[in-house]
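Q: My labmate handed me this sequence with no annotations at all. I'd like to see what the chain might look like in three dimensions before we decide whether it's worth expressing. Could you predict it?
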Amino acid sequence: MEQTGWLFDLYPSPDASPGAGGLTVWLLCDDGLRLRLSQPFPVTFYTAGPPARLRNLWRFLRRQPRPCLLRRDARRELFSPQPLDVLAVQVDQPAILPGLFRDTQQAFPDLTYYDADLGVAQRHAAAFGSFPLARCRVTYTASGRIQRLDVLDSPWDLDPDPPPLRVLSLEPDSDPSHRQPQALLARFESYTYRFPLQPERALLVNLSALLRRHDPDLLLTTWGDTWLLPYLLALSEQINLPLPLNRDERLNAVFRPEHSYFSYGQIVFRGQQVNLAGRWHIDCNNALLYDDFGLEGVFEFARVTTLPMQDAARLSPGTGISSMQIVTALRQDILVPWHKARGERPKTALELLQRDQGGMVYQPLVGVHADVAEVDFVSMYPSLMVRFNISPETAGAASGNPGDLERFNADQPPGLIPLTLSPLLDKRLALKTRLGQLPAWDPRRNSAKARASAHKWLLVTCFGYLGYSNARFGRIEAHEMVTAYGREALLRAKEAAEDLGGIILHMYIDGLWVKRPGWSQPADFQPLLEAVAECTGLSISLDGIYRWVAFLPSRVDERAPVANRYFGVFQDGSLKVRGIEVRRRDTAPWIAEVQMALLEHLAQAPSLAELPERLPGAVEKLRRALADLRLGRVPLEKLVVALKLSRALEAYRTPSAGARAAAQLRAVGKELRPGQRVRLLYTRGKPGVYAWDLPDPPQAAWVDTIRYRTLLLRAAHAVLGPFGIREVDLFTWAVDNARYPGLLLDGISPRRSALAYPSASAARIADASASKLISPG
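A: Here is what I predict for the chain of 777 residues:
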């Protein structure tokens, strides 16, 4: 028999008896059938070490109850010029390999292991070219055993056929961490259901009927990992009423515990996960980058990384890049180490000084500037790895010169990292090109943007993962050489711009902000793009031309610029904002909304010369926002601040606001772990905070309006400060604006020093000599 459809899911078969199917494979068939098949799929891990120890291991494995096939083999190790003699351990059933390897490693911890902990999805991808939602043609027997599987498309196709997924959305009617939900809301296509949580038996009966009627492929939930599915499964067990969440009735849902870990100097928390078999479950709140690229991006992330869909939704881009590297290594018959074993080679102080410098940063010229072009290298670091063949196995050799932009080992084939990244780069560039050609109304834009965003996160991460201490194929020398090539390319771009008469206002890793008198249209900057591409060999693009852009100083010292703290308005009126409150996750929504309203108001100015005319209206918006706060018109939920816990509560010597709120939650039985965010309100008196998720709701009279006023004025100053409004005057005005009938922006005020343009920047942008009266009403 033969079927054609989409590869939906695969996992080790629960039947590990000899002769049973090694993998369970689910297919979404063209005729609408959801087909479960089995596929023979033996898997192998390898062991290297002294011959005597390998002989002992051979005897040990022969005594194990788990059947395995042993043989001597010679395999390629990435950093070894000669094949490595290894002992190959093969099992017919993938389900028994983890236990066999665990026992082996515990008995022989001194040996080196390869291909030991790889997922079956990665092994299958290397063997058959498969990936989630791949179009496949499958030939199988009447008993459902696969005889042949052919993949009909590629993860690099720009227009894959959309699968006919059936999606059921489930969510409680309120945030479970804030208050106890009373009902479960379900949506399938045009149908909407509301199931009360009480009585419990009726809830399970109704939900079971819904699952059987629609048989969804995907459960798209809100708080599904951390509350909903654990609640439903516990309830099902308690009252002994089965709930068919799994499509594969032979297996139970798989729980993965919550955990905290450090990444790039920050503590990260990952919530509990609940994975299903034969059916997908994705929790929108627990999916790592769901807010950035949505379901379409998750599908693309899974396609190019070969990670199972439920893992792709929850795991980091670093794990995705690692999976891609592993699949490339398997296809090249390269051993995948269980643990990274290659450390940094010794270096002299001079070598460290030359190599370990990081990316190039040219501090911005603080102030407001008009007609500024932002020019970015396209995926600079991944492009450098591909173009100059920078890979762990090539960077250790004494070839390749960043100063001459010379390729590593020019006479050798591409290394592991360039082989991995090259198709991803090509696909991203093709999608970016398509986005540039599609009109704004075209419905294909959203899909292309989501998929390009998934690629962006993978490409951003690949550089850091190259030097990550635990990366299987990481090597710090390769990481250093990427930054060295990046610095050289950016310096060449700077020189090319200056040769054409441009002024460099800012440089940051892979981008330049360039201003040249007389250049204000995209065509004006085309010679610069061509010159940079010629002298670096890298793709470069014009990100946009700002009507005006403001580079902000440090809050601690106004004389010191900050590399990634700016905002500006492009010629199409769109805003770009970095490093200020509206971009921070610990900003109260109300403050972020007011700050964005100020920015959008200023963005309406057609040019920098006309921008001062917008300032009175901006200050009026700020006055109204302060009045709303003072009069209690701001909803409490808009004042909630979400602060991350950086450590366990016991480790705080002086408890922060977040730690004090977390202690309040602990007192009522709600425990938070490091890396989680605690939601709170700032309140009058001690302890100064009130945890938002406490059982008793807060009262509006408790709110510390002075604290929120201070936070708002700081956010407002970040926007208004570049145009001459000093922070001290802003605070003075906020305190006194109810007592004085007017306030002059040009430095003349009834009783106080006024909001005036400083001579350093605003005097250059407009003639502010005319008084602009702002009445507080």
